[in-house]
Specification:
The chain is mostly beta strands. The longest helix is centred in the last third of the chain and has 13 residues. The strands form 3 sheets. Strands 9, 10, 11, 12 and 13 form a 5-stranded antiparallel β-sheet that branches. The termini are far apart. The chain is globular. Helices cover about 5% and strands about 40% of the residues.
Length: about 180
């Protein structure tokens, strides 16, 4: 790699045939390894350096999203609730902070956040904390409306059933499309 790092996140993207590396402890740098060219290239730095962020890259490889992570030293227990995205086709703007509408009224400051794509524009996020308590919950981030919506256990069960019945299709158990 071009930059030393620890507690970073790496994600391989098949369509890009590349390995994307994001952040790390006290580290905002990002880079991408191109398997065709057999070389590392820098990509823009995150606005907020963070360790162990959750990363998602859309199916085509156009946009990358970073959620949560630990700010500063790994033992600081200072968590980030900022969501950033990067246009991988035109990286000149760098990582942009997403001003999302928290309709779920949850806290994303967590080190154990996981992401799962439901559709091309909806991400299931696990690891958010419900308001006023530490119970973890599931929420959906709509990438078109930038709304964060809490889902209940019934919606989650519908998604699980659809995922088992139709493993190659987008799954969504919510009434929204």
């Amino acid at each position: 790699m071009l930059n030393p790092r620890s507690y970073h996140t790496m994600i391989y993207h098949d369509n890009l045939k590349s390995l994307v590396v994001v952040g790390g402890e006290n580290n905002a740098t990002c880079e991408i390894y191109d398997f065709y060219l057999n070389m590392w290239n820098t990509i823009p730095e995150l606005n907020i350096p963070r360790a162990n962020p959750a990363v998602y890259i859309d199916k085509v490889g156009t946009f990358a999203y970073v959620i949560s992570g630990i700010i500063g030293n790994i033992v600081s227990n200072s968590y980030c609730d900022v969501i950033e995205f990067l246009d991988l086709v035109d990286m000149n703007q760098g990582w942009l902070k997403i001003d999302f509408k928290n309709k779920a009224n949850v806290d994303l400051k967590n080190n154990e956040t996981k992401l799962f794509p439901l559709t091309d524009h909806k991400l299931l996020i696990y690891g958010a904390n419900e308001s006023r308590n530490i119970n973890k919950c599931f929420v959906v981030l709509d990438l078109k409306t930038l709304e964060l919506i809490k889902i209940d256990s019934e919606d989650l069960e519908k998604m699980k059933v659809k995922a088992k019945l139709f493993p190659d299709e987008n799954i969504i158990g919510l009434n929204q499309s």
